[in-house]
Amino acid sequence: xxxxxTEKQTKDFGITAKTKQTLHTExxxxxxxxxxxxEEWGNMLVLDGMVMTTQKDExxxxxxxxxxxxxxxxxxxxxLVVGGGDGxxxxxVLKHKSVEKATLVEIDGKVxxxxxxxxxxxxxxxDNPRVEVKVDDGFMHIANSEKDYDVIMVDSxxxxxxxxNLFSKGFYAGISKALKDDGIxxxxxxxxxxxxxxxxxxxxxxxxxxxxxxxxxxxxPTYPSGLWTFTMGSKIHDxxxxxxxxxxxxxxxYYTKELHHAAFALPKFVKDLTD
Length: 275
Known about the structure:
Number of domains: 2
CATH class of the largest domain: Alpha Beta
CATH superfamily of the largest domain: Vaccinia Virus protein VP39
Number of helices: 9
Strand content: 25-35%
CATH topology of the largest domain: Rossmann fold
Distance between the termini: 50 Å
Mean pLDDT: 95
Structural class: alpha/beta
Strand order of the largest sheet: 8-7-6-9-10-12-11
């Protein structure tokens, strides 16, 4: 008998993947956590029924969250990742030699625990000496920070459960306070096919706080619609004005210096969300 996992991305649409086995299932203090081995995508982390990452396509999301802001900032030394307990963004952050310390603040320690066990190629750098891992509330960590970070990356789930506050204007104002005077932040902001209103609201909230606000996209096949957006807020540095010499050779599978600029070229229906 074939077994399939299905994520209902809207009440009328979903994606499905043939599974080999369930590796772990648990109701944590914050959410339902499932680790599934699939035929097509390898091991898959699912939170509250939503696909968070898979072994096959994880590199797209993690590279685009990390490298776009880190190559935009001229000298990122102190980096904060809010959420991201699977460790993928941290792995990419550490590819930048200028980064002296990367702090991960993940509210659910179980995500870290089972990612290390079942997604070691993603979570393997969480024990790196340049990394500090805190099992804590990212919203409160931001609220208690002031001019501590060069770059902040919000690697949250969709705006449900413990992640709701991470899509609020007050949170973005707190991020501005937590950043240094030339700081940059980026957040994943869902997809334009099903969550256009969310993208529009976040973009305009960020624009009221940050002088430079940009929206960019990537193709992530296991995320709703496959077209994913990221919103960047920057105090000074514009990702579209990065000089050629800023780019250095790092090992990637998706991100390139050419794609750095191309990702900001938006389809019209997506660009319209920024007007």
